[in-house]
Amino acid sequence: MRNQHSVPLTPSQLSSRTGGPRTKDSHLAFVARLLPPEIVGMAWVALVPRVPRPGATSRLSADIQSVFVMPKQRGQGIGSALVEAASKHATHPRSLHVTVHSGRKAEPVYERLGFESPDSP
After folding, report:
1. What does pTM read for this prediction?
2. What DSSP line would sit under the chain, residue for residue?
3. With 100 labelled, which of 3, 44, 85, 112 sits at a CA distance of 20 to 30 A?
C-alpha cells in the first residue's frame, strides 16, 4: 500500500497544478494524493460571509463541497480524512456553522463524522 496524504491547496495552487479555473481565496481545496503523486480525491471548503449582527460584525459560515474519491480508492478512509481536514479548517474562530450538502448515498458517511441530516428528528 502506498502512503496517503491530505494537503490543503489554495484555488490558485490547485489551478496551477490542474489547469482549472481560478476561484476566490474564500475557497480551499483539500487534496488526497498517493506517493508518487497521484490525486485520488478532494474536498472543498467555502468560507462564506454572513450578515453582521450587533457584537459580531465579521461572521462566517463554512460549507464543505464537492467531496470526491476515485472509485478504486474508496473504502480506505480517504473521504473521511478529507472531510475531517476540511471540517477542521472550517471551524475557523469566526465560522459559526459548518454545512455539507450531499446526496442520499453519502449521508451515512457524513452522519458517522458527526453531521446531522435536516430530516433527523
Report:
1. 0.72
2. ---EEEEEE-HHHHHHHH------TTEEEEEEEETTTEEEEEEEEEEEE---BTTBSS-EEEEEEEEEE-GGGTTSSHHHHHHHHHHHHH--TTEEEEEE---GGGHHHHHHTT---TT--
3. 3
